[in-house]
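Weekly puzzle thread! Below is a chain. First person to post its structure in token form gets bragging rights.
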Amino acid sequence: MMILPASAEAIAQAMEVLRAGGVIAHATETCYGFACDLTNKGAAEKLFALKHRPMNQAMSALFSSIEEAKRYVEWSDKAEELAQKFLPGPLTLVMRLRTDAPHPLYVTPGGGETIGVRISPHLVALQLTKAFGLPLSTSSANVHGKPNPYSAQDIVEQFEDETLQPDLIIDSGQLTDESPSTIVDLTGKELHILRKGSIDLQ
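Winning reply:
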């Protein structure tokens, strides 16, 4: 497990890890999250195994912009309204994947029909998505069922006894204990809140 302070060098190292199918941990506006190349099935399998995540529990994707997300999901007027108001920010919009998307996205190792769209305002998250040029996974950097991590040390402690470990942690210091993102399902006719987080849509 490599730990580097947030810097241009860390971003460059992260690009090498991601292109090789590895998993990195980095800060977001909520907590530290895990990123892997969502177009790489092997990378998705590694992340699920690393987290002990149930294989049917789909991951969300981190995009560099609203325009980039539109290339992969069936955008809607409601998505546009919410995106213009709250993104980048702690909001996850669940939408159907486009059949003509530039690449298949392995939201589970077996694929999937829907995906949660995230656009983070955190500088490191934005640098990663822009530099990599493809959607990245975004999932809290913890062992499934354990607390969300708010520091590199939290991640180290959770994974110190695990066989699989993240390949790289980009250390942005201690984060404040924030609520997770609000998750909204836009796949049906009506908006459905799946998780109430730091954005109140009521």
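Puzzle host: Confirmed. Bonus trivia for everyone else. The mean pLDDT is 95.
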